[in-house]
Amino acid sequence: MADRDGFIWYDGKLVPWRDATTHVLTHSLHYGLSVFEGVRAYKTDEGTAIFRLKEHTRRLFNSAHIYQIPMPYDQATIEAAQCEVVRANNLESCYLRPLVFFGAEKLGISPKGAKVHVAIAAWPWGAYLGEEALAQGIRVKVSSFARQHVNVTMPRAKVATTYANSIIANAEALQDGYDEALLLDTEGFVAEGAGENVFIVRDGVLCEPEIASALTGITRSTIHALAADLGIPVRTSRLTRDDIYIADEAFFTGTAAEVTPIREVDNRKIGNGRRGPITERLQKAFFDVVQGRDPKHKDWLTKI
Ligand SMILES: Cc1[nH+]cc(COP(=O)(O)O)c(CN[C@@H](CCC(=O)O)C(=O)O)c1O
């Protein structure tokens, strides 16, 4: 990722990609406290547009607020910077990664005295779990690792420390021949994927787990709105792993994962073991929105 042409927005200005570096004694590198976002820009008939830019930027600021990281810029500046970095790299569609971190000015648990840096990179990133997965669905394993308790990492924050948990859960799933991990919370109820929220369909109703220990996904809230548009009822409740096993359909949502059907969990076929009809309707509605074909949700698109 480090050796490529292009530009990265770094502490207020565009710098050549290879020059966007930091010292090995960077505080966030040692202690894991940085906050970040995953955002996508899509090609539309009216040009490239960033999907739900305001919501993602607000969540970035919320994450910093929760972890008492003083932001050196305001939201408008960071929103404009995301548009600028897409333009500067001449990207028609891409994935953006805003990152806020403590620098190398000091080490020790307290970051007090370390400078807060902000970087925003953008690069082309296709289907997160593979193009085929979007149609065929993926195989998922319930992780032996639990999602952190809500008083361990703050679930409303997209904070780097959450992702050591995601990394070992995802690694375990891949090593065991699956495509992604599904994590339960500390009480054993379904939380979310390693990098996604999860939905199931049961008797025509779209069901999701209570969001408590999971990230409040923006794609998740998009699916809620699209389900309402399509007249699909939505129910939020505690879900057990075997609720997933006996579901008619299941899918992951996320900025990177978009809407990825789940065909199997723990070697149990979900429904007919393929992308279900309601999943397909929601997936199509999602791509219509992000690619600018749905006039009802144009407000979610920010032209760059
Ligand atoms: C743990 C987790 N839960 C839910 C979501 C879905 O949130 P949203 O993107 O707002 O719908 C994501 C996004 N995962 C990001 C990280 C992917 C990566 O590998 O890095 C993403 O999808 O960009 C998570 O990381």
Describe this structure in words.
The protein has 304 residues and is an alpha+beta fold. It has 8 helices and 17 strands. The chain folds into 2 domains: 7-123, D-amino Acid Aminotransferase, Chain A, domain 1 (2-Layer Sandwich); 131-290, D-amino Acid Aminotransferase, subunit A, domain 2 (D-amino Acid Aminotransferase, Chain A, domain 2, Alpha-Beta Barrel), CATH 3.20.10. The strands form 2 sheets. Strands 8, 9, 10, 11, 12, 13, 14, 15 and 16 form a 9-stranded mixed β-sheet that branches. Strands 1, 2, 3, 4, 5, 6, 7 and 17 form an 8-stranded antiparallel β-sheet that branches. A hairpin with a 2-residue loop joins strand 4 (39-44) and strand 5. The chain is globular and about 55 Å long. The structure holds ligand PPE. Ligand PPE is lined by residues 38, 166, 192, 195-197, 214-215, 217-220, 253-257. The ligand Cc1[nH+]cc(COP(=O)(O)O)c(CN[C@@H](CCC(=O)O)C(=O)O)c1O binds at residues 38, 166, 192, 195-197, 214-215, 217-220, 253-257.
Find the structural class using helix and strand composition: alpha+beta
The CATH top-level class label of the largest domain: Alpha Beta
CATH architect. name of the largest domain: Alpha-Beta Barrel
**Measured on Cα atoms, how large is the radius of gyration?**
19 Å
Give the ligands present: ligand PPE
| Amino- and carboxy-terminal Cα gap | 24 Å
**What pattern of helices and strands is seen along the backbone?**
EEHEEEHHEEHEHEEEEHEHEEEHE
Annotated CATH homologous superfamily of the largest domain: D-amino Acid Aminotransferase, subunit A, domain 2
CATH fold description of the largest domain: D-amino Acid Aminotransferase, Chain A, domain 2
**Percent helix range:** 25-40%
Overall pLDDT score: 97
As for the number of domains, it is: 2
Q: What percentage of amino acids are in beta strands?
A: 25-35%
